Amino acid sequence: FPFRLFPLREHGMNWRARPLTCQEIQAFRKSKEVMDRFVRAYRLMLGFYGINLVNEKTGELERAENWRERFENLNRFSHNNLRITRILKCLGEMGYEDYQVHLVKFFLTETLVEETLPNVKRSALDYFLFTVRSKEKRRELVHYAWQHFRPQSGFVWGPRDKLQRYR
């Protein structure tokens, strides 16, 4: 069977790769070797995108030295956004919800605050945000996005009255 680096319980673009079962996910999560390989694969993909995993315990990220060149690639080729969405979903499946939060916040910061990834902005808001499994963390990220979105009146990813009252 063809396999994926970041498998999910749903079909992706490669219809020959079969979706994971819940039993397979549980078996993966119990295997130190599989989880170590998963984190190595995550580091590899982050490096491709110009991002470093600073802290393996928390999932904290920072720009890599080659970030300008890699961000240029991210801005130019939108197919990367599908891969990032897949990685985010897989992080959730494998129990790395904190990694999800850090990666989504990284992209929100780069798109809305630093404005280095303008062509990733819609994917970050439409897809990346909503892969985060924790409802509380997702709310925090939506609020963060709302705070930095310009013009704020154009923000459609959450109800304005709740965003204004948040916290």
UniProtKB/TrEMBL annotation:
A GO molecular-function descriptor: opioid growth factor receptor activity
Family assignment from sequence similarity: Belongs to the opioid growth factor receptor family.
Domain Opioid growth factor receptor (OGFr) conserved: 5-164
Domain of life of the native organism: Eukaryota
Gene Ontology cellular-component terms listed: membrane
PANTHER family per the UniProt record, alphabetical: OPIOID GROWTH FACTOR RECEPTOR, OPIOID GROWTH FACTOR RECEPTOR OGFR ZETA-TYPE OPIOID RECEPTOR
Pfam families the record matches: OGFr_N
Organism: Leiothrix lutea (Red-billed leiothrix)
Protein name: OGFR factor
Coiled-coil stretches noted in the UniProt entry, renumbered to this chain: none
